[in-house]
Each structure stands twice: as structure tokens, then as C-alpha cells.
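Readers of this paper often ask what the protein records in our data store actually look like. Below, we set out a record of this kind in full and without editing:
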Amino acid sequence: MTDPDARKAKIDPTATVHPDAQLSKGVEIGPYTVIGPNVVIGENTKIQAHCLITGWTTIGKDNIFHHGVTIGTPPQDIKYKGERGEIIIGDKNIIREFVTIHLPSAGGKTEIGSENFIMVHAHIPHNCRIGNQVVIGGYVGLAGYTEIGDQVVIGGLAGIHQFVRVGRLTMIGAQSKVTQDIPPFMLVEGSPAQLRSINSIGIQRRGISNDALAEIKKAFKIIYDSDHNTADALKEIKKRLRPLPEIEAIIAFLEKESHRGISKKTAIEEEAEELILPELPELGI
């Protein structure tokens, strides 16, 4: 067992830490936790009891991993043959009980940014990319190669298909089934998921200007409340809307290659003409 003084880390006597693991000062390792040889853990990160962190995993500073978290086990991909791939986790994340984070397949990366809150039993799969300040509810299942943008909120028990992209500040309601890409700033809910409106409350809470909010509403109508295909909608947005950073983010999302296509399932006919935000679905469970 590793000498805690040598690593300037606090390691419970029942924990097993491989001598080649790199633990920075202030790290705490809880009872019966196992840390593998290719693991790097940044300052002041706390890992509670009965966790397993293995594989080629690098973790930043000031994270909290609750009881039973598993990181770095092989991906659920029948093509995986043991090739090396990295898991990279940023700073100040809260990872709750029994979350699983898998190694990538095909030598890629599984990446989680900073200041995320991932709730109980959520699954972060191979080759997934999660941005910053994301909230993922309990029992959420992401599939391989999904991309979750900054400040996204995913309600409990939602499922997201492989290769799907979800844009910044989108909210996905609890128990939703998402099979295609969702552009930034949207509110979706249902099985299959339908676009309900823009995420007005989330936008306002993040301090986005009223001018930008008005332009985002126009972009929503161009994409969803018309007969435009994605290419035509993109041309109309570039032509008609002001080049604010939020509109540029929507343009960049629509221009990027999509494996699944942009979701066009909407419930616009059920909403008021002014796109009044419906009652928010529950986040957790």
C-alpha cells in the first residue's frame, strides 16, 4: 500500500493504491477504494468509499467522487480489443453514487469538462464528450460518441442515442428519448423527444441579453416553424439574423457534420404562438 506521507494524500488503510498512480497533495482516498497504475489525480480531489478508478485516467482538481463510482473499465463495445484510450476529467465536478465512466474505444478519448454535476447511476460511455457546467440527472443513459455541450441539463431517466449531439444550454426533460441532434438553447421533452420551445428560463439565468433571446427565438422559428430543411434554415439564419455570439453558436452547430441529423420533431402546434415556455419537466428522480 502507498505511503500517504510520500504522496501528501490521505489514504484510508483499507484502500488499494497502485504505486505507479500519481496522487497530488490534498487528495483523499476512502475505504476499500481501488486506484490503478495509470491514474493521475489532481489536488484536493476526494474519492469516497468502494470506488474503482483504473484505465488511463487523468482527473483534475477539487472533484468529489461519491460512493461506488467506477471509472476506466472497458467500454461496452464488442469491437474493443484492449487498445489504449484516455479518460480526461476536469476540475470541480461532483460525481454521485454508482456513476460509471468507461474507457474509449478505438484509441480515442472519453472527456468530461469542469463544474459538472452527474447524479446517481448515470452512465458516461466510451468516446463521450461532456462540456462544462452540465447537469445530468439520475439513471440517465448516454450512448457511445455522444457530445453534450456546455450548461446542458438532462432530466432523470433520459436516454440519448449514440453519436447524438446536444448543443449548449439545451434542457432535456426527464424520461425523454433523444435520437437526433438538438441545437443550442432548446427545450425538448418526450419519447420520442419533441422540441417544445427555446430554453427561455435557462437562457435568462445565464445572463444572456434580451437582444440575443429575441434572435434565438427567430432562429427557432426558422428551423422548426417552417418548411425549411437544415441547409435552407442555415442560409436563412445567416441572411436574416444578427451575428451575435449565440446565433454564431447555432450556425456552427448546424454546419458541423451530423451522424444522426437534426431533430425536427416538434410540438409547436401545442404551444402558444409566442412560444411561451411550458411547465418545466422534473429534473431528477
Remarks:
- The mean pLDDT is 92.
- The CA atoms of residues 137 and 156 lie 4 Å apart.
- DSSP finds five helices and 28 strands in the chain.
- The chain has two domains: 4-199, 204-259.
